[in-house]
Amino acid sequence: MTSATRPRARVRAMTGTVAAFGLSFGMIMTSRATPANAATWPSATSSQPVSSTISVSGTRDGGMVRYYGSGALAGDGQEEGQDPIFKLAAGATLKNVIIGAPGADGIHCEGNCTLQNVWWEDVGEDAATFRGGSTYTVTGGGAKKAADKVFQHNGPGTLNISNFAVSEFKTLYRSCGDCSTQYTRKVNLSNIEVTGTGSTARLVGINTNRGDVATLRGITILNDSSRKVIPCQKYNNNTAVGTGPDSTNCLYSTSDITYR
After folding, report:
1. Is residue 42 within 8 Å of residue 70, measured between CB atoms?
2. Residue-wise pLDDT tens digits, 121-174
C-alpha cells in the first residue's frame, strides 16, 4: 500500500499454504546477536483462517499460530486497498505470530506499535504498514516472498527493525513516495539477514527530497555474489536518484555490510 487511504479492493481467494521454515532463536530474540548463516523459520502450532480484520489493543501473544486470509481477506497479490489481517491500535504489541498465505495487507499499525517475533511466510500486498505515530519497532521474525515491499512507512516518525530475516523480496523498507500527506521519516536497520535471489532488491528506499534518513548496522547478505541487493536506494518521491552511503541520508559504511 503506497498511500494512507485507498479504496477497498476484493480479490480472488486462494488456498493457504503450509510451509516448514526456520531463524535461530538467538537471532530472533537477542538484540545484538550475529545473524546465522541460514535463517531457521518456525513451524506453526496450528492454523487459523481470518475472514475479517482482527483488532489488537494492548498485547496479543499469538502462540505461534499461523493466521491466513479467507473470504474478503483472501488476497495475496499487489492489488491496492486490501484490508489487513491485524490492525493494531496505538501502543499495541503483536508477538509470536505467523502470517501465512493468503496474507492480504498483513498488519496495519495505526500509531506506535511493536511487532515481536512475527513471521510472514508469503507476503501479500505488504507485510506491515505504519500509518500514524512516532516510533514503531519490529524485533525478531522474518518475511519472504514479497513481490514488492515488506514494510511500508506512510506516517511520520521512526521505524526500528532489528534481528530480522528477509528473502525473496523487492524492497524491505519503503518510505511512502506519493502519500497525500508527506513527512520526514527515519528507519534504523540492525542485525538483518538478507538472502539474495540474483535479482535486484533494495533494503531501504527513502525520499532524500523529504530529508529521510536510513541507518544500517550489522547487515549480512547471503547468496549475492553479483551484488544485486542495494543497501540504500534514494528517491525524490517516486523517482530514483541514486544509491550508496553518504553523510546525510544513507548512513552506513562498507564495514556494516557483510557478504557470505
Report:
1. no
2. 999 999 999 999 999 999 999 999 999 999 999 999 999 999 999 999 999 999
Using only the alpha carbons of the chain, give its radius of gyration: 17
The residue type of 79 is E
| Grid cell digits, residue 44 | 506453526
Buried b (16+ CB within 10 A) or exposed e, 13-35: ebebeeeebebbeebbeeeebeb
Taking the model in full, what pTM does it have?
0.86
- Please name the residues in contact with 121: beta carbons below 8 A apart, sequence gap of 6 or more: 17, 19, 21, 41, 66, 98, 99, 100, 101, 103, 144, 145
Q: Which of 244, 238, 249 shows the shortest CA–CA distance to 214?
A: 249
Where helices occur in the chain by DSSP H, the ranges are 25-29
Cβ neighbours around 240 below 10 Å, total: 12
Q: What is the Cα–Cα distance from 3 to 192, expressed in whole angstroms?
A: 26
Residues 166, 120: Cα–Cα separation, whole Å: 9
Q: Any long-range contacts for 28-32 (C-beta under 8 Å, 24+ apart)?
A: 28/117, 28/140, 28/141, 28/163, 29/117, 29/140, 29/163, 30/163, 31/139, 31/162, 31/163, 31/190, 31/191, 32/191
> 108 phi and psi, to 5 degrees?
-110, 130
Q: Which residue has the cell 557470505?
A: 260
Other C-beta atoms closer than 10 Å to the C-beta of 81 total 16
Of 125, 97, 130, 109, the closest CA to residue 28 belongs to 97
